[in-house]
TrEMBL record:
<feature type="region of interest" description="Disordered">
    <location>
        <begin position="164"/>
        <end position="201"/>
    </location>
</feature>
<dbReference type="InterPro" id="IPR013783">
    <property type="entry name" value="Ig-like_fold"/>
</dbReference>
<feature type="compositionally biased region" description="Basic residues">
    <location>
        <begin position="190"/>
        <end position="201"/>
    </location>
</feature>
<protein>
    <recommendedName>
        <fullName>IPT/TIG domain-containing protein</fullName>
    </recommendedName>
</protein>
């Protein structure tokens, strides 16, 4: 309604004369809400512009063009181990449905399979999904990236860390055994056999 009134006010001479003669009456006849009427009373161009933008965003036809950019603010959990498949939750603003997400560094790009998005196009958005960390995936920090349905992106720099799997610890070095001592070359004399004495008759 506000957008239409401003459009008519700039193009309709009859409305322009009516507004100049009695602004309050022209605003009421246009069907503007009390909140929108107060904007003209305050004569604050910034408030009027913001109200126009807010109304355009709610339009199913043109709101798409005025939608704020997607913004990623968090991921949970923030780390995982090689070989794990994790359930992850992404939080932020103005997520879209559909949208994509992944973990990345200079050499790797790991997709996050999103299963649901709630609060799409709103100031509080959340997406849930799963990510599989390969057993040989390089460890270290990864940037989290989300991409909207219009190819706009937002990143969380080094927002996720891949740790080594618990099985990748170094095996303990076996204790060294002292070499068995070699016997000396001295031969032990065999024990003498004693003959049993024959009893005398």
């Amino acid at each position: 309604m506000l957008v239409k009134f401003i459009h008519d006010l700039t193009t309709n001479e009859k409305l322009q004369r009516a507004f100049a003669e009695n602004p309050k009456k022209a605003l009421r006849q246009a069907g503007l809400s009390a909140k929108h009427q107060a904007l003209f009373k305050n004569r604050d161009p910034q408030q009027v512009s913001q109200a126009v933008m807010d109304e355009l965003r709610t339009s199913p036809f043109i709101g798409f063009w005025f939608m704020p950019a997607i913004n990623l603010t968090g991921i949970s959990p923030t780390s995982g181990r090689q070989g794990q498949t994790l359930k992850v939750t992404l939080t932020g603003q103005y997520f879209t449905e559909p949208m994509t997400a992944n973990l990345e560094n200079n050499t790797q790009k790991v997709p996050i399979t999103l299963q649901s998005v709630t609060g799409a196009g709103q100031e509080k958005s959340r997406a849930t999904g799963t990510v599989t960390l390969a057993a040989n995936l390089p460890t270290g920090p990864y940037t989290v990236r989300v991409t909207s349905d219009t190819k706009a992106t937002s990143t969380l720099s080094m927002g996720f860390t891949v740790n080594a799997s618990s099985g990748n610890t170094l095996a303990a070095t076996p204790a060294k055994k002292s070499p068995a001592r070699k016997s000396s070359g001295t031969k032990t004399a065999p024990a003498r056999k004693t003959r049993a004495k024959t009893p005398r008759k």
